[in-house]
Design goal:
single chain, about 375 residues, alpha+beta, Immunoglobulin-like
Length: about 375
Amino acid sequence: MYSRDMKTLCLVLVAASFSLLPLGCKKQPPITLSAQAAPPAVFPGEPVTATATAGSLSTKKNNSVVYSWSGTGVTGNGTTATAATDSLTPGSYTVKAEVKEGKKGKEGLKPGQTADATASFMVKEFEPPTISCSASPTTIKPGDTSTITATGASPQNRPLTYSYSAASGSVNGSGTTATFNSTGASTGSVDITCSVSDDKTHTATSTATVTIVAPPPPPQPHAQALCTLSFDTDKTRPTRVNNEAKACLDEVALDLQKQADAKVVIVGESDAKEKAKTEKEAKYAAKHKHAKVVDAAALRAVNAKAYLVEEKGIDASRVTVASGTEDGQKVETYLVPAGANFSYDVQGTMPVDESTVKAEARKPLSGRHHHN
């Protein structure tokens, strides 16, 4: 055991940092401290833990060790501390640790009984979100709609808000889907912009394209051949509409009633003998003012029209009469839908002048009974 004088001398020499002490003096090295922050880089809101490691601490039983911590948002207890980063802006930060030893209440009063250390960590800027945008279908007709789908992602899982805009037409929706309405937009390509933003005001955009294609024009309507009326059974009245012809015209009337915007063209025909007779009469009439010309083809057509108008109640303006060039004692009927061009579809007919060709009055032959 040291004498009082030797102990005093040792303390004085240690305080003076003598490297060589008298025999019997034990030198207590100064304490050391190191610090480390983990993880070394974080995003705002992620915690950082700092650890302090002291060295050359005294082993005396009555030795007391005290740690303290400082730094922005740093709170510590003992050898560890935590840095709260919620309110920290991106940048570099330092955590400082200090250790003291000695008798309780007198820690760090003597030389070599204190040490400090620092550790650094980085607060990183939040990464912006990403977004992709698609449309389904990508090709639509004017007035149709397309579903817009946005897929957004935040590298740090920040909450996301979506919005949409269109170069023309309109787009409505929230969340990851919206509906593009092409009403009012011209044909061609239309860009729809999908936007996403996080709660840190970072944004990203992506574009989907919808092509508006005009529908093909409706097919051109054409004249449709209906039934044919035969006039070759009544040799006495070969231009008269008989019961068989009426049945055909009844069907024609039904077709006109079903298609209110359609018309009908009645084309009368005559055989070679009748044509020759008409031609002969026409030559004679050219020299004789009051001579009568009978055009069997035209007469058959106007008689058929008279039946439709007078018996079936069809508006006369919906029925046109003409004569054709085919050989036969007959009448052909054609339904002409709105927009159809009869002259193009059925060629070789001539309009009948209804001011000169009048329908025949329907009256039976004298002295005979007829069922037609």
